[in-house]
Structure formats: structure tokens, C-alpha cells
Amino acid sequence: MAKKNGKRKRVRGNGEGCISQRKDGTWCAVVTVGRKPDGKLKQKFFYGKSRQEVAEKLTKALHELKQGTYIEPTAITVEKWLKTWLEEYKRPKLRATTYESYIIEARTHIIPAIGHIKLKDLRPEHLQHLYNEKLNSGLSARTVRYIHTIIHAALKQAVKNQLIIRNVAEATELPADNKKEAKALTPAEMDCFLNTLGNDRMRAAFITLLGTGLRRGELLALKWQNVNLKEGTVAVKESLAWIAKKGFVFQPPKTEKSRRIIPLPDDVVAELKRHKVRQAEERLKLGEAYQDNGLVFATELGTPIIPRNFERKYKALLKKAGLTGVKLHTLRHTYATRLLEAGENLKVVQELLGHSRISVTADIYSHVSPELKRTAVAKLNGMFSR
């Protein structure tokens, strides 16, 4: 009906709901989207400067209602949803260290940049700008991809919860993941490092790393009850981490494959035996002051070693050995590299390292394979001249 005597004009189009013109000249459309808990109709209003504008909005809503894809707009922001997702959906499932890293990335990189945007208004270009800015600021491609992983997972859950229609993170372009080649100590560097250990209290810890390929957290969580010196094996069942405001956290290994039994070289068994005697002497000397946690590698008081302090000890030994640019994880890479150089099967190395998939092992140690290939092909020398 047309506007008459200054009153609002209502016009109903075929199948488009109710459209009316307001006193100020703007247009309004209304459609029923469901019912409230009390049984009353729940209606959605659309506003615009022209009838065509609100009609388009209404048509879109009616189509989504018919297809079952309509989601009622919400004022929730990216920050609020991200915090809800982390607390309610991720905290119960993730390892403590992984959850902590998600929190840090969210607080440091995601929330300051896009936290204020309403979840329903988030667009691919918002995320693309965030990724580009972080990359240009000096963050590695790997870190930017990690940020994307968090955002993508949070938005995926938001789609499931019908807070948004689509996951806009899927429409972004990510930087290439240029993985650095895993560095290993050369035999000469390895000898230099071992000679530096001398009679250091933590000598057995670093030799165990080189002889087992354990991760730092796995080494520091290792307990005597999981070490069989007679059989020469260690069973990896826990990992130790230090989390701010929480302190020490003993958590499950990184993956299911990380739960493993590793045979020990004879030299490592001998070192662990000597270390056990030394630890017994420390316990006897301190008496009741000693806090026996059953740990293979502990402080002189028997308490767990803070991972950061273990890193500091390692760096001090490196400096003494005159080695630079060698991370603690390099000892793990050295273990794997020596095995592969000796011709060990890649699948066996995967199991020993506790990688979830053999492709992970192959990717990390692809630099070792060319030499192995040449050695393998060399076995064919002379075959064609016989």
C-alpha cells in the first residue's frame, strides 16, 4: 500500500516477506527466522535506503532459510570467539605446552590485529593483510603458517556452531614453508663436544641425547623406572615442560608415535650407570633435604631441571668447545644422521625418533639421502662390464 496521510507505506512482494517504508524515508524488511524459547516468533529486520536494497537482503535471507544455511548475525567479535574457542574447545584436548603456544600467538599476533572485528564481518582480505604484515615484520613463514592454523581451526568451529556461514581463512594465500635443512654435528664437531664434557655433572644427559635422539622434554622427564640398564633400553612415556604461572608440567609425549622404547648403545648404558652412582652419592650427602622424584636427570636437590636452564648449560659447553650456531635440537638430528649414514632403514629411524609419519622423517633428512643413493648405486659398479 502507498504512503497516505504521512503514515508508513507497506508493500508485500511475491515470496519476499514484508517490506515497508519508514517515516524518515528509509526502507525496512522483516522475515520470520524461527521461534523463541517461549514459542513467540523470532523475526529479523533488514534496513536500507531503497526498497531494492532491503528486497535483496530479504531475498538472500529467504534463500538461506530454504537451504538451511541461514545464520542469525551476532555481535560477537573475533577476540571474544577466539577466547571462547581456546578455553572451551582446545584447553581440554591440547597438551599444556601446545595450549600455551596458542594463547601466546593469539595475544601477540591475532587479537591486536583483528580482535576488534565482528566475527560475521571478518573477510579474507583482513587475514591476508595480517599474514603479509607479519611476514614483512620479520616473522618466519613457518610462524605465519602457524598463526593461520590457529585462525583456521577457530573459524572452522565457528562454522560448526553456525556463528558464520563460511571459513574465510580458506580463501587466503600462505607463504611457502621453506623448511631449513636439519643440521647435524660433523664427526669432528661431535668429538670436540664430547671431549668438552669431561667430568661435568650433566655429561650423561648430553651423551644420552646423542645416543637416543630424545627430545629435550622427553630427556628431562625420564625416570629411572623407565630405564632398563640390564636390557639397555629406555621407555619414553612423558615429557617435561615449564609453563609460566604453573611451573613444571609432566605431559604426554608429542604424539602417540612418541610413546616408544629406544635401545641404548653400550656407551650410553655405561654413562648412565656411572651417573646413577653419582646421583646416589648426592642423595646420600643431602639426606632428608634431597627431593627424590625418581628422575634420571635432576638438579642437585633432586628437583626437575627447568628446560631453560638446561639450554643455558648446553650453550656454556658449546662456547667452551668453540662451536657456534648449534641448537640443542641438533643433537637429535646428529643421532638420526649418523644412523642414516650407517645405512639404517628410514622406517626404523622414524620409529626411533617418534615421528608421527615416515614422510616427516624423509622430509627432515632429505639432505642425507643423496649420499646414501650414491652409495647404493655404487654397488652396481662393474655389473655391465662383466
Low-pLDDT stretches are: 1-16
DSSP summary, beta strand count: 9
What is the helix fraction of residues, given as a range?
40-55%
Largest sheet: 4 strands, antiparallel
Strand residue content? 5-15%
H/E series, N to C?
EEEEHHHHHHHHEEEEEHHHHHH
* Secondary structure category: alpha+beta
Kindly report the name of the CATH homologous superfamily of the largest domain.
Intergrase catalytic core
**Top-tier CATH class of the largest domain:** Mainly Alpha
Q: Using the CA coordinates, give the radius of gyration.
A: 31 Å
CATH architecture of the largest domain: Orthogonal Bundle
Instruction: Domain count, please report it.
Output: 3
The overall pLDDT, averaged over residues, is 88
The tally of helices reads: 14
Defining key terms:
single chain, 386 residues, alpha+beta, DNA polymerase, domain 1, hpI Integrase, Chain A, 3 domains, 3-stranded antiparallel sheet, 9 strands, disordered N terminus
Molecular structure report:
Mean pLDDT is 88; it is low at 1-16. By secondary structure, the chain is of the alpha+beta class. α2 (78-90) crosses α5. The N and C termini lie far apart (102 Å). The strands form 3 sheets. Strands 1-2-3-4 form a 4-stranded antiparallel β-sheet, covered by helices on one side. It folds into 3 domains: 9-67; 78-171, DNA polymerase, domain 1 (Orthogonal Bundle), CATH 1.10.150.130; 187-373, hpI Integrase, Chain A (Orthogonal Bundle), CATH 1.10.443.10. It is elongated, with a radius of gyration of 31 Å. The longest helix has 21 residues, at 266-286. The chain is built from 14 helices and 9 strands.
